[in-house]
Design goal:
16% strand, 5-stranded antiparallel β-sheet, single chain, Rossmann fold, alpha/beta, Helicase, Ruva Protein, domain 3, binds magnesium ion, binds adenosine-5'-triphosphate, 16 strands, Beta-Lactamase, 5-stranded parallel β-sheet
């Protein structure tokens, strides 16, 4: 294929990608400008070709233009955030990478690739501002509890398996200190729940709890969100406190720490070492007292090996290391969680589902649950939305289980009477009554609704049993499937 063919097609391709692409020659004049650049700068391609960069970007200077730095000093920049006023006077924030183009060791031009993050930046700043307003409001109202921040407590973490009990115990102990914690668990294993519970059990529970996801944001933007900015630090910055300052006295949850850009990990390490933060562009440092809890959905050691997590930061964060087991590894927890979610969705969907059948439970025990507890929760919610009976049976399960159903030929023969129920904190009288009702219901199920046998097994008079059956409205419909 000839050169003209390639030139035309490559230009078409470059016009369809989301990033702005510009090429300048050795004099700093624009030679190529794709469609995304046009949208970003609100200027037509034909108006740019041949013009000097500073003519198109009057708010930049030879010192601040990364393209000019590339041709003049051979500098490469990678993912640098830049805020500028475009040709039409609109403030735009981009993340740019630029590098010189060399032919036989001579710089003949430079290329810049820009991603528009104006909306992301505005949104993130809005979130930080709202967090601040919320904290202020709470302070002004004399509201001590931090319920909007960290919702869950250890009572909300369902799980009695050996591995869960051990992890919960460690986490409870860890909540008493201010050392950094690194929680590792695959997606849906309950990392967020644990972080909330730790904060709520700690002495910091009345102070702010702030969470920030470290993936998906460019390093410079995340840096200004975490540490704050001072006016003029780079064009377009305001005086703004970062999350470290807002979380002062409390807990800062850094989620997906393994996705935090490496250059920012260095800065985080420094804060962890001396407790001082420096707003972007500021000369002075500020002392903060913040407990850091970080989470990773990838084995931190693997992240270290693959250079996604700095080894020094790993050691600093992993002062307390918690590993949350996969659901599949949690012996006996599936039935507890099934009961818990059935209760939850009975309330939310106004249903009266009593439990799942034995074959369903067997199938659940064999299933891989790659999405862990979250996946189980969604399966139960989905099934309860659509089912008619009062017990979840194999037929109610969604298609993802079809293959397993076929493999499991004897699932339909097993008698269907499993009951699952779990413990949640509630007034004692109500809890005892609930337990009594469940026990009677379960016993009636077991003994085929025979009153005398059930009364005998429960060691209560027949009349008492009859009275309680009436009181709790324990009915026959649905008792056997
Ligand atoms: N032990 C548990 N008891 C009750 N609910 C749980 C438990 N673990 C997880 N859940 C529920 O599962 C869902 C996912 O939990 P969570 O958000 O804490 O997972 P995660 O580990 O942070 O996942 P991701 O890595 O995807 O962010 C939530 O709805 C949570 O309420
Ligand atoms: Mg999470």
């Amino acid at each position: 294929m000839d050169n003209i063919f390639w030139k035309q097609n490559i230009e078409t391709i470059l016009d369809y990608i989301g990033e702005g692409i510009q090429v300048i020659d050795a004099k700093g004049c624009i030679q190529y400008y794709n469609r995304s650049s046009e949208e970003l700068d609100d200027i037509r391609k034909r108006e740019t070709i041949g013009k000097h960069v500073l003519e198109i970007y009057p708010s930049l200077s030879p010192q601040t233009s990364t393209l000019l730095n590339a041709i003049e000093k051979g500098l490469r920049t990678y993912n640098m955030q830049q805020t500028y006023i475009n040709y039409k006077g609109k403030k735009i924030t981009t993340v740019n990478s630029s590098f010189p183009i060399r032919v036989k060791d001579k710089i003949v031009g430079a290329i810049e690739i820009s991603r528009n993050i104006t909306d992301v930046k505005e949104l993130s700043e809005k979130v930080v501002d709202l967090q601040e307003q919320l904290l202020d409001k709470r302070k002004n109202n004399g509201q001590k509890e931090n319920k909007d921040g960290a919702k869950y407590t250890f009572y909300d973490i369902i799980g009695e398996s050996k591995s869960m009990l051990k992890t919960k115990k460690l986490a409870e102990k860890a909540s008493q200190s201010s050392s950094p914690i690194l929680i590792y668990g695959e997606t849906g294993t309950g990392k967020e729940l644990f972080v909330h519970a730790i904060h709520n059990r700690s002495q910091r529970r009345k102070s702010p709890f702030i969470a920030q996801n470290c993936g998906a944001l460019p390093a410079t933007l995340l840096e200004s969100i975490l540490f704050g900015t001072v006016k003029g630090s780079f064009t377009g910055a305001d005086n703004r406190a970062g999350l470290f300052e807002l979380a002062n006295g409390g807990t800062l949850f850094l989620d997906e720490i393994n996705s935090m850009p490496l250059e920012l990990q260095v800065k985080l390490l420094r804060v962890l070492q001396d407790g001082n933060i420096r707003r972007v562009g500021d000369i002075k440092t500020r002392q903060v007292d913040v407990r850091i809890v970080a989470a990773s959905n990838e084995d931190p050691l693997v992240a270290v090996e693959n250079k996604r997590l700095r080894r020094d930061l790993y050691y600093r964060l992993n002062v307390v290391g918690l590993r949350l087991p996969r659901l599949k590894e949690r012996d006996g927890d599936i039935s507890l969680l099934v009961g818990f979610f059935i209760d939850k969705f009975n309330k939310e969907l106004d249903k009266r589902v009593k439990g799942v059948s034995v074959p369903v439970l067997n199938l659940f025990e064999k299933y891989d649950w790659l999405g862990n507890v979250r996946e189980l929760e969604h399966v139960i919610e989905g099934v309860m939305n659509l089912m008619d009976g009062d017990r979840i049976t194999i037929e109610d399960l969604p298609y993802i289980f079809d293959k397993m159903k076929e493999e499991d030929t004897d699932t339909h023969d097993v008698k269907d009477k499993v009951k699952v129920k779990t413990i949640a904190v509630a007034p004692l009288k109500e809890s005892i009554e609930n337990f009594e009702r469940d026990m009677i219901e379960y016993a009636m199920d077991e003994l085929n609704d025979n009153i005398s046998h059930t009364a005998k097994r429960l060691q209560i008079p027949r009349q008492t049993l009859q009275y309680k059956i009436k009181k709790y409205r324990i009915g026959k419909p649905g008792a056997e499937n």
